Amino acid sequence: MASEGMDAFCGSPFWNASVTWYTNRPDLTECFQKTVLVWAPCVFLWVFAPLETYYILNSKFRNIPWNWLNISKLFLTVVLIGLSIADFGYALWKNDQEREVNSVEYYTPLIKLVSFILTAVLQWYNRQRGMRTSGLLFLFWFLLLLFGIVQYRAELNKAIDDAENEDYFTFITYLVYFPVVVILFLFNCKSDAAPRFSEYATPENPCPEQGASFLSRLFFGWFDALALKGFRRPLETKDLWNMNPEDTAHEIIPRFDKYWQKSVEKSANVPSAKASFHKTSASVDLVGKRSKKTQASVLPAVCKAFGATFLFGSLLKLVQDLLTFASPQILKLLISYVSDDTYTEEWKGYFYAVLMFLAASIQTLFLAQYFNRMFLVGLRIRTALVSAIYRKALRLSSAARKDSTVGEIVNLMSVDAQRFMDLTAYLSMLWSAPLQIALALYFLWDTLGPSVLAGLAVMIILIPVNGVVANRVKVLQIRQMKNKDERVKLMNEVLSGIKVLKLYAWEPSFEQQVLKIRDKEIHVLKQAAYLNAATSFIWSCAPFLVSLVTFATFVLSDERNILDSKTAFVSLSLFNILRFPLSMLPMLISNLVQASVSIKRMNKFMNSEELDPNNVTHDNSEKHPLLIENGTFSWGPEDDPILRNINLHFSSGSLVAVVGSVGSGKSSLISAFLGEMDKLTGRVNTKGSIAFVPQQAWIQNATLQDNIVFGRSMDQTVYKRVVEACALKPDFDMLPGGDQTEIGEKGINLSGGQKQRVSLARAVYNNADVYFLDDPLSAVDSHVGKHIFENVIGPSGLLKKKTRVLVTHGITFLPEVDQIVVLKDGEVTEMGTYKELLEKKGAFADFLLQHLQEGSGDDSTSQADLDELKQQLESTMGAEELQQKLIRARSRISESDSGSVSEKRSLSRSGSLQRQTSVESNAEKRSLSRLNSEKDGAVKAPVVGEKLIETEKAETGSVKWGVYSHYLKSIGLVLAVSTLLFNVLFQAFSIGSNMWLSRWSTDLPDDGTGQEASKRDMYLGVYGALGVGQAVSVVLASVMTFVGGLKAARVIHLELLKNMMKTPLGFFDVTPVGRILNRFSKDVDTLDTVLPMIIRGFLSCLVSVVATLFVISYSTPIFISVIVPVGILYYFVQRFYVATSRQLKRLESVSRSPIYSHFGESITGASTIRAYGVQSRFILENESKVDFNQICYYPTIIANRWLAVRLEMVGNLIILFAALFAVMQKENSSEGDVGLSISYALQITQTLNWLVRMTSDVETNIVAVERIKEYSETPQEAEWDIPSSAPPPSWPDEGAVDFKDYQVRYREGLELVLKGVTFSVKGGEKVGIVGRTGAGKSSLTLALFRIIEAAGGSILIDGQDISKMGLHALRSRLTIIPQDPVLFSGTLRINLDPFGLYSDDDIWRALEHAHLKSFVKGLAAGLSHEVSEGGENLSVGQRQLICLARALLRKTKVLVLDEATAAVDLETDDLIQRTIRTEFSECTVLTIAHRLNTIMDSNRVIVLDRGNVVEYDTPDALLQRKSSVFYGMAKDAGLL
């Protein structure tokens, strides 16, 4: 009916089948040409114009300059408008002439006219709004061109056939019109010039995508240049482009933030939790309700911020899904064509072949665009989440910070945010997979009828099986993550405390601990491997099982059902389409499960408690800059208060000292002022900017200058003054790069004192109003301390006008401060000036008494000071009372369980001191424990480059064969060969079954009746048997791959671990922990989980491609001629891609490390960052690091799409040729062969793509093996045990130490640190070693333990040359109490005796002598008390005492003390000194001293200067000689 209406509309027939279809010269009717072929492009234009308008309105660019391209386009469009007007006018004129005019002659020119005007308007606005290319206009001209060809041909034919054409006007206009359309189409293949104005900042290396035309974007042609560059030479970061502005953190984060804030507010407004969101100053009563606050989830915010692009991508996916089903339908027609000998129209076969090619090509383009969109969304989500996690980490409250270690937070960022990103590309499968399954079943019903239900039943049965397996995998996954976290955490501690492990010879014990966790991991992974084999079995055999059951039901259910080629192969290609969604669903489910675990972890973190900004107010109208009224503070809402009833106010410009014994709450007081503690009651107010020097200096991995300037503008004069005042000038002069020397991660190459001074210099340079100085003088030598007090802190220092709060243990400077606050057990007991407090005779007088009693306990207290102190005390309390008090104090101290320890007991439970470091975090402390190379004057880096830490280098070029062979050797020959064998076997069975099907479907009687029953059953039986063969071989192949992969992972990890344990300490100095840890976490994880999967995929793809080519060549032998050229094309595309992609992947993984390092560093120094108020600068730094990582990652995404488009086109060519040859050889080939070859060809597109991707994935992931191999082959230290030269069991008996002309340097090519040192120490002597910073004191101890090996000379202990024996034999017979107390997480017992060599009694005895017995007895778990990471839950003093207990337990004849007293208060110091005097009286004790008074009672003193022994005599003898260096040092320290 409609056709008749159209006939009238045109005045000629609209459709004529005999003209168009049943003919050897097909053509379309004139009416069809003038209506559908013109209207369709115009309708397309009008439908999508609103979308184009949306893009134009939202464009951030403006004003493209006029140029020949846009002028030409506009001009030609105007020409077309003119032609349309002419055509319309001609129709009117004809009407005037009373000639016959049909409606079509009015409407078509009008429709064209309006459409062309619209294109002109769009072009105009595109230019104005900076749109350089338009997809809509490109497609509009393309459709006009495509459809116009038909009319153009018809017009020409008409002119040739009919010379008397009276309608020559329309003929001429059409001849002008069509070439103009062609030219406009070509012009639209180019993009316009760059716009003059952009709302974004102009990047120096803009992404070429910005200026790419629509065509180039469609095929990713703009990536060609980079692919070529990457093929010619390995890419470097400078070759990469900046991110598109809309993908930078700067644009993405505000978008995400807006919705996240809304989520937070929404969840905060749940009625029961009103009070919980902002804790008021007295919210103790509300604490209980806090749990009711519902968690805000990141998911809604992510969806709202990035959902639009995702939806657009899903639309593209929908089109692609629908197109997938075109191919089987065309195949059906093609088989009918080949099998029907009555066909005369040859063109139809070619038409079907081309149609198949087109369907596949359009699918390719849609799929590529879909993935591109999805990955971009993933990229944006990752940027948003990483930044959100980072900013949250800077705001965490102390209580929340305890819940998650640095490692866990970094994991959120590295693993969980990445999971999100990986998921986005597959999320659409949630709706796409069911849609594909439904469509496939619909078409199958059409072909096979109800028999399909049998196949469907099989599928439905398999789904729950899959579900069960996926669930089990999820459980294993969580266990695996737990084990991995545990192992990485332990490795982190081992690497951070490696110096201690080496000094104590404890490596084997910790190696065993790591391997124990690793065995648990491998066990879990093994189970997962078998489950994976089950899933791969299900997914490989499901389609076959389904087709077997369906075909069996089909032929057995009804005699009349004949399985001919059309039925068999169309069904087969539909079953193949089913395979993908069916296999994706389980994978998707497991990915979703992983992502949901990640979301939970992220939500928990993102909802954890933040520091309450109301803890501290900043009211500038207050009179005093610092004030606390009725303050009670705790470290967390559930913890006991640490500070109680605090009422303090300090006047402007005053210097306030805070004193008190260990654990009295001094550091906590500063934290309370900084807002780091939970304020339970009262009010805190600070006025003005703040600078903070934490007790444990936090140093960034940057140059010294950057650390001091800390983001402020550089002012040379101020800077110089600050450096000199902080006594850093001499240190800078010693360093090869001066203040441009790069400090390693966590300040590795600075000594404790230097770090403390850099931290102080940073505060001074910051020129704040208020200064909080948490014991800044504890780690520095006495004369330096004096210098700093005079020049910086004291009444005449740089800070004299500022308000200063100084926590101190020393008493030297107390008379000079304006006010002293005495803390005891978290309460202020006294306040006042020095004089006032002395007169009160209260706690402060006791504090001084204690000092007086310990007399020489602190080098900063000279004899003169002590005398003065004694006089002051006598005058205030009378000589007699003083004597009594002193006697009492003595007896109190000599009791082994001294008061200080019981005080400490109270403290470590409440945990005041645990904070002192937890804020600064253990990360910082480890630094000290590393070789303090530079403080021993070792010029620590080759002068060539002042960088201590070499930047991590990305390997370049293809992965060496050695790496593959290393991996294969680790797998083992048998497993490797059998894996390959079973893969080949699987394909053989698969091909066999399909060829059998081809034979079956063509073996039909000519009369059209079905096969006889026996023959049919024989065919069916063999078909089934071949299927069983497939199933068995696929399971075996899978199991072999995974078991082999795990064996390799285990072997390679073991090599890495063993090697790292045996690597000399110097290596850890120049290699950041993060970098080594990356090998143990990311790379080992790749080996465990990723590589086996990828190798499995690679092998099956490879075998499958070979099989496909074999089948097509077998059924249409002429196809072999195409294989070679197509193969060459494929090879080139693949080489280009792999070279570029591999290097991009390497750059990306190198650019990822800085994010984590900076992240870990920021979390560690969060309290410092907050105190200085520089959060925004650090957030920006984090964003720029993330952006840089994305710059390296984005080209990888594009490279994948670039490859996909090109390779799938190669695959589409194979389809085209397979179909063309089938048509050409119609006479010689059976329909079974055609069905077989084309159904195989249809699969090749995806397989080819996967093969290259897998090849590349194998290459990029084998890099993990390469990176681990690199660290498994680092040079090793000497043998641990050499049985042939083992010393006797009782060695050393006396402990006599002889240095003979001993020389040592830190690394090859550096100067000597000890230059031929000769001296001998008799057994049992106590020898002090002194010298200025950098004299080589620590080098001496390192040499004794052979941490650094001799460059000349020797060291003998009891006559045995230590260089001849095994390292462990040596180190286990010496004892050291190192400078920094390093503890490991685990029980107290493990910390004291990791090998379990001693009985409980021994350990208790050691604890008693170390004054810790009552403390440990008081702990609920006793010796099994868990020590947290880095010993966070013990005070610094307690940690030092545990190190003492270690020494007491080993009790060897030689004991080395390395400045152990530097960071400890006087009480602990005194305890240690006294224990050493009593317990080690028989032993040789070498003490490296900062504080001269600690060694005044030694038998002899060694004075070192610049690596030489300049003096060696008794202290008294040296003091007699006024010219001696020692005398000068004693004088400086005020001991004379």
From TrEMBL:
It is an enzyme of class 7 (translocase). It is a multi-pass membrane protein. It is found in: Cell membrane; Vacuole membrane. Residues 908-918 have a biased composition (Low complexity). PROSITE patterns: ABC_TM1F (PS50929), ABC_TRANSPORTER_1 (PS00211), ABC_TRANSPORTER_2 (PS50893). InterPro entries: AAA+_ATPase (IPR003593), ABC1_TM_dom (IPR011527), ABC1_TM_sf (IPR036640), ABC_transporter-like_ATP-bd (IPR003439), ABC_transporter-like_CS (IPR017871), ABC_transporter_C-like (IPR050173), MRP (IPR005292), P-loop_NTPase (IPR027417). Residues 311-594, 980-1260 form the ABC transmembrane type-1 domain. Coiled coil: none annotated. GO terms for molecular function: ABC-type glutathione S-conjugate transporter activity; ATP binding; ATP hydrolysis activity. Residues 888-932 are annotated as: Disordered. Its EC number is 7.6.2.3. Keywords: ATP-binding, Cell membrane, Membrane, Nucleotide-binding, Repeat, Translocase, Transmembrane, Transmembrane helix, Transport. One of its GO terms (cellular component) is vacuolar membrane. PANTHER family: ATP-BINDING CASSETTE SUB-FAMILY C, MULTIDRUG-RESISTANCE LIKE PROTEIN 1, ISOFORM I. This is ABC-type glutathione-S-conjugate transporter.
